[in-house]
Amino acid sequence: MANDLKALVLDCTLKKSPGPSSSMLLAEQVVEALGSFDVGAEIVRVVDHDVRFGVTTDEGDGGEWPEIRRRMLDADIVVRPDLDGTAVLGLQDGPRATRRRAR
């Protein structure tokens, strides 16, 4: 029976593609492990995108965070297999704060 679960793996390495990254290696291993459970997964290497720093869910001016955020909200599982994701952690607070206010 096929599994409809989907995962988003956020690789928050500080190294842009195509440079080697230990967190990308971890991300690839997570995708492989999830695949063994028929979970579809994709990796987003955040540093390769135009992510604006700030405290809102959209810092405007063409930033790519709103699209990454949408993919996070659409995923059943979100994984961040590294320790360098502090910039993304601040942005993740935006969606949580939005949900709290909406209740």
Describe the structure.
- This protein has 103 residues and is α/β, with parallel strands linked by helices.
- It is built from 3 helices and 3 strands.
- It has a 3-stranded parallel beta sheet with strand order 2-1-3, sandwiched between helices.
- The chain is flat.
- It starts with 5 loop residues before the first strand and ends with a helix.
Q: How would you describe this structure in keywords?
A:
single chain, 3 helices, 3 strands, 40% helix, disordered C terminus
Query: On the 0-100 scale, what is the average pLDDT?
Result: 81
The helicity comes to 25-40%
| Poorly predicted spans | 95-103
| Spatial order of strands in the largest sheet | 2-1-3
Radius of gyration: 14 Å
Large-scale geometry: flat
How many DSSP-defined strands? 3
Strand content: 5-15%
How many helix segments? 3
Note the gap between the termini: 35 Å
The topology string of helices and strands comes to EHEHEH
Which structural category fits the helices and strands? alpha/beta
Tally of structural domains: 1
What profile does the largest beta sheet have? 3 strands, parallel
Question: Secondary-structure blueprint of this entry?
Answer:
Elements: E1 6-11, H1 22-35, E2 40-45, H2 65-74, E3 77-79, H3 86-102
Parallel strand pairs: 1-2, 1-3
Would you kindly provide a brief summary of this structure?
Helices cover 40% and strands 15% of the residues. With 103 residues, the chain is an alpha/beta fold.
